[in-house]
Amino acid sequence: MGxxxxxxxxxxxxxxxxYDLDVEDKNGNRHSYQVASRARHKEALxxxxxxxxxxxxxxxxxxxxxxxxxxxxxxxxxxxxxxxYEFPAGLVDEGEDFHAAGIRELWEETGLxxxxxxxxxxxxxxxxxxxxxxxxxCAAVYGTAEGEISKKGQEETEEIEVVLADRKEVLRxxxxxxxxxxxxxxxxxxxxxxxxxxxxxxxGCKV
Length: 207
Prior knowledge:
- This protein has five helices and eleven strands.
- The strands form two sheets. Strands 4, 5, 6, 7, 8, 9, 10 and 11 form an eight-stranded mixed sheet that branches. The protein has a three-stranded antiparallel sheet with strand order 1-2-3, with no helix packed on it.
- The two termini are 32 Å apart.
Protein backbone atom coordinates (compact mmCIF):
# COMPACT_ATOMS: atom_id res chain seq x y z
CA MET A 1 0.00 0.00 0.00
CA GLY A 2 1.18 3.52 -0.74
CA UNK A 3 2.39 5.89 1.98
CA UNK A 4 2.04 9.64 2.52
CA UNK A 5 5.41 10.94 3.69
CA UNK A 6 4.74 14.66 3.95
CA UNK A 7 1.97 17.21 3.35
CA UNK A 8 2.59 20.84 2.39
CA UNK A 9 -0.18 23.44 2.29
CA UNK A 10 0.12 25.56 -0.86
CA UNK A 11 -2.79 28.02 -0.53
CA UNK A 12 -4.72 29.68 2.27
CA UNK A 13 -8.24 30.35 0.99
CA UNK A 14 -11.61 30.33 2.72
CA UNK A 15 -13.45 27.72 0.65
CA UNK A 16 -10.84 25.62 -1.17
CA UNK A 17 -7.14 24.93 -0.72
CA UNK A 18 -4.37 23.04 -2.50
CA TYR A 19 -1.98 20.64 -0.81
CA ASP A 20 1.19 19.00 -2.15
CA LEU A 21 1.76 15.43 -0.98
CA ASP A 22 5.10 13.67 -0.97
CA VAL A 23 4.11 10.03 -1.43
CA GLU A 24 5.65 6.61 -1.81
CA ASP A 25 3.90 4.08 -4.03
CA LYS A 26 3.53 0.32 -3.41
CA ASN A 27 6.89 -0.31 -5.10
CA GLY A 28 8.76 2.19 -2.93
CA ASN A 29 9.01 4.92 -5.60
CA ARG A 30 8.59 8.58 -4.56
CA HIS A 31 6.08 10.87 -6.27
CA SER A 32 4.39 14.25 -5.87
CA TYR A 33 0.60 14.32 -5.68
CA GLN A 34 -1.77 17.29 -5.48
CA VAL A 35 -5.03 17.35 -3.51
CA ALA A 36 -7.71 20.04 -3.34
CA SER A 37 -9.65 20.25 -0.09
CA ARG A 38 -12.22 22.29 1.81
CA ALA A 39 -9.89 21.97 4.83
CA ARG A 40 -8.42 25.27 6.03
CA HIS A 41 -5.20 23.60 7.29
CA LYS A 42 -3.47 20.27 6.79
CA GLU A 43 -4.40 18.96 10.25
CA ALA A 44 -8.06 19.08 9.12
CA LEU A 45 -7.51 17.00 5.97
CA UNK A 46 -9.36 13.70 6.02
CA UNK A 47 -6.05 11.91 5.45
CA UNK A 48 -4.96 13.44 8.77
CA UNK A 49 -8.11 13.02 10.85
CA UNK A 50 -9.34 9.70 9.46
CA UNK A 51 -12.87 11.10 9.78
CA UNK A 52 -15.41 11.57 7.02
CA UNK A 53 -17.40 14.62 8.03
CA UNK A 54 -19.60 16.14 5.29
CA UNK A 55 -18.13 19.23 3.69
CA UNK A 56 -21.35 19.87 1.82
CA UNK A 57 -24.94 18.77 1.45
CA UNK A 58 -27.01 17.98 -1.65
CA UNK A 59 -30.77 18.54 -1.52
CA UNK A 60 -33.26 16.26 -3.29
CA UNK A 61 -36.56 18.11 -2.95
CA UNK A 62 -39.89 17.33 -4.59
CA UNK A 63 -42.39 20.10 -5.21
CA UNK A 64 -46.12 20.32 -5.89
CA UNK A 65 -49.28 18.87 -4.40
CA UNK A 66 -48.55 15.49 -6.00
CA UNK A 67 -44.77 15.90 -5.65
CA UNK A 68 -44.56 15.66 -9.43
CA UNK A 69 -41.69 18.13 -9.84
CA UNK A 70 -38.11 18.05 -8.66
CA UNK A 71 -36.28 21.22 -7.59
CA UNK A 72 -33.21 21.89 -9.74
CA UNK A 73 -30.94 24.85 -10.23
CA UNK A 74 -29.32 25.99 -13.46
CA UNK A 75 -26.10 27.69 -12.40
CA UNK A 76 -23.21 29.40 -14.17
CA UNK A 77 -19.90 27.74 -13.31
CA UNK A 78 -16.53 29.29 -14.10
CA UNK A 79 -14.91 25.85 -14.33
CA UNK A 80 -16.74 25.15 -17.60
CA UNK A 81 -17.57 28.71 -18.66
CA UNK A 82 -21.28 28.03 -19.03
CA UNK A 83 -24.43 26.92 -17.21
CA UNK A 84 -25.02 23.48 -15.74
CA TYR A 85 -27.97 21.77 -14.05
CA GLU A 86 -27.43 20.75 -10.45
CA PHE A 87 -29.39 19.98 -7.32
CA PRO A 88 -29.44 22.78 -4.75
CA ALA A 89 -26.40 22.28 -2.54
CA GLY A 90 -23.99 24.09 -0.29
CA LEU A 91 -21.31 23.86 2.35
CA VAL A 92 -21.98 22.62 5.87
CA ASP A 93 -20.80 25.17 8.44
CA GLU A 94 -18.51 24.10 11.27
CA GLY A 95 -20.59 22.35 13.92
CA GLU A 96 -23.75 22.46 11.78
CA ASP A 97 -25.91 19.37 11.26
CA PHE A 98 -26.12 18.65 7.55
CA HIS A 99 -29.93 18.33 7.69
CA ALA A 100 -30.10 21.89 9.05
CA ALA A 101 -27.63 22.93 6.35
CA GLY A 102 -29.98 21.48 3.73
CA ILE A 103 -32.90 23.55 5.02
CA ARG A 104 -30.75 26.69 5.05
CA GLU A 105 -29.19 26.14 1.64
CA LEU A 106 -32.47 25.40 -0.13
CA TRP A 107 -33.94 28.65 1.14
CA GLU A 108 -30.83 30.65 0.24
CA GLU A 109 -30.65 29.31 -3.31
CA THR A 110 -34.35 29.00 -4.15
CA GLY A 111 -36.46 30.82 -1.54
CA LEU A 112 -38.33 27.55 -0.88
CA UNK A 113 -39.00 25.95 2.51
CA UNK A 114 -37.59 22.44 2.84
CA UNK A 115 -39.18 19.64 4.88
CA UNK A 116 -36.69 16.75 5.26
CA UNK A 117 -37.82 13.13 5.57
CA UNK A 118 -36.04 10.41 7.53
CA UNK A 119 -34.03 7.92 5.49
CA UNK A 120 -31.70 5.01 6.07
CA UNK A 121 -28.19 6.41 6.64
CA UNK A 122 -26.89 4.59 3.55
CA UNK A 123 -28.76 7.17 1.45
CA UNK A 124 -27.73 10.25 3.38
CA UNK A 125 -24.24 9.70 4.83
CA UNK A 126 -21.33 11.60 3.25
CA UNK A 127 -19.80 10.07 0.14
CA UNK A 128 -16.72 11.32 -1.69
CA UNK A 129 -17.34 13.40 -4.80
CA UNK A 130 -14.21 13.38 -7.01
CA UNK A 131 -11.70 11.32 -5.08
CA UNK A 132 -8.94 11.59 -7.69
CA UNK A 133 -8.65 15.33 -7.03
CA UNK A 134 -10.17 16.13 -3.66
CA UNK A 135 -11.13 14.71 -0.26
CA UNK A 136 -14.47 16.57 -0.41
CA UNK A 137 -17.45 14.52 0.79
CA CYS A 138 -21.12 15.45 0.55
CA ALA A 139 -24.15 14.17 2.44
CA ALA A 140 -27.65 14.12 0.95
CA VAL A 141 -31.03 15.13 2.33
CA TYR A 142 -34.42 14.24 0.89
CA GLY A 143 -37.82 15.81 1.35
CA THR A 144 -40.46 18.15 0.03
CA ALA A 145 -40.37 21.86 -0.73
CA GLU A 146 -43.05 24.50 -0.67
CA GLY A 147 -43.41 28.25 -1.08
CA GLU A 148 -42.58 30.80 -3.74
CA ILE A 149 -39.33 30.92 -5.68
CA SER A 150 -37.11 33.85 -4.69
CA LYS A 151 -33.53 34.99 -5.29
CA LYS A 152 -33.35 37.12 -2.15
CA GLY A 153 -31.05 34.68 -0.36
CA GLN A 154 -28.59 34.23 -3.22
CA GLU A 155 -25.08 35.64 -2.96
CA GLU A 156 -23.78 38.29 -5.37
CA THR A 157 -21.40 35.79 -6.94
CA GLU A 158 -24.16 33.27 -7.67
CA GLU A 159 -25.93 33.14 -11.04
CA ILE A 160 -28.76 30.73 -10.34
CA GLU A 161 -32.05 30.02 -12.09
CA VAL A 162 -34.47 27.82 -10.14
CA VAL A 163 -36.13 25.09 -12.22
CA LEU A 164 -39.14 23.01 -11.16
CA ALA A 165 -38.87 20.08 -13.54
CA ASP A 166 -41.46 17.39 -14.23
CA ARG A 167 -40.44 14.02 -15.69
CA LYS A 168 -40.72 15.22 -19.28
CA GLU A 169 -38.40 18.14 -18.58
CA VAL A 170 -35.99 15.95 -16.59
CA LEU A 171 -35.71 13.63 -19.59
CA ARG A 172 -35.01 16.56 -21.90
CA UNK A 173 -32.35 17.95 -19.55
CA UNK A 174 -30.57 14.60 -19.33
CA UNK A 175 -30.55 14.32 -23.11
CA UNK A 176 -29.61 17.88 -24.05
CA UNK A 177 -27.98 19.81 -21.21
CA UNK A 178 -24.85 19.93 -19.05
CA UNK A 179 -25.66 18.11 -15.80
CA UNK A 180 -23.50 17.38 -12.75
CA UNK A 181 -22.93 13.66 -12.15
CA UNK A 182 -24.63 13.44 -8.75
CA UNK A 183 -27.58 15.42 -10.06
CA UNK A 184 -27.87 13.16 -13.10
CA UNK A 185 -28.00 9.99 -11.00
CA UNK A 186 -30.70 11.42 -8.74
CA UNK A 187 -32.67 12.68 -11.75
CA UNK A 188 -32.64 9.13 -13.08
CA UNK A 189 -34.20 7.94 -9.81
CA UNK A 190 -36.88 10.61 -10.14
CA UNK A 191 -37.46 9.67 -13.77
CA UNK A 192 -38.08 6.00 -13.01
CA UNK A 193 -39.85 6.24 -9.66
CA UNK A 194 -43.56 5.42 -9.61
CA UNK A 195 -45.30 8.85 -9.66
CA UNK A 196 -47.73 7.47 -7.08
CA UNK A 197 -44.86 6.56 -4.77
CA UNK A 198 -42.43 9.48 -4.46
CA UNK A 199 -39.10 8.57 -2.83
CA UNK A 200 -39.71 4.93 -3.69
CA UNK A 201 -36.00 4.43 -4.45
CA UNK A 202 -35.23 5.14 -0.78
CA UNK A 203 -37.06 1.98 0.33
CA GLY A 204 -34.87 -0.63 -1.31
CA CYS A 205 -32.04 -0.96 1.22
CA LYS A 206 -32.87 -4.41 2.70
CA VAL A 207 -30.61 -7.32 1.73
